[in-house]
């Protein structure tokens, strides 16, 4: 009877140890599974953000290239006075086409999309300026409407200074960490803005998530209508 009691106690002790080991292994395995799941969810969220940033970059730059496509050329400076230009108030013609700013000359049209001519005999159209510039991590589109009768375009202003008569510049892209412009002649050689046949745009969008800096790059190129 004594030997049976000892055997039973021994078997009970082994069962308790095995149970403890099983609990420890289960907890460790659960921890690994949770860690793996969290990591996979994090990676999925990062990939989704990267995809969204790339989609935004493509959509935003497509808007710019659409304007380049219908533009006659890039102006060296804005042709219409702008009290919010970089050198204002002393110089209201201080927007410049360069490596970070694009000043486009686009034919003015009326409400029926008819071109407004400064000189109809020589088919010289009045020109609006469309200006793309970066400020505080956003790419904006400003319109400087030519002061001609019937012009459908409306001059825009910085968002902070917008009014009913001067609506806000369009916010084309956010999370812009870099934006650069290159100008090429018809031979594909880098040239000055005024002599450009085509324009290449390069943008990097960045956003922080899970303590990481997520960034994407996108580039596109477009020829001027008269290029």
Give an account of the 3D structure.
The chain is of the alpha+beta class and 227 residues long. The protein has one domain. Helix content is 30%, strand content 29%. It contains one helix and ten strands; from the N terminus they run αββββββββββ. The strands form three sheets. A five-stranded antiparallel β-sheet has the order 1-2-5-6-7, with helices on one face. It has a three-stranded antiparallel β-sheet with strand order 8-9-10, covered by helices on one side. The protein has a two-stranded antiparallel ribbon with strand order 3-4. The radius of gyration is 31 Å and the shape is elongated. The model has no long low-confidence stretch (mean pLDDT 88).
Short description:
This protein has 227 residues and is α+β, with helices and mostly antiparallel strands.
Give the overall pLDDT as a whole number: 88
- Give the total of beta strands: 10
Order of helices and strands: HEEEEEEEEEE
In the residues, how many domains can be counted?
1
Output the number of helix runs. 1
Strand order within the widest sheet? Answer: 1-2-5-6-7
Q: Rg from C-alpha positions?
A: 31 Å
Spans with pLDDT under 50 lasting ≥5 residues? none
Question: How many angstroms does the end-to-end distance come to?
Answer: 107 Å
Main structural class: alpha+beta
- Indicate the percent of residues in helices: 25-40%
Task: Note the main sheet.
Answer: 5 strands, antiparallel
Give the amount of beta strand, in percent.
25-35%
Shape: elongated
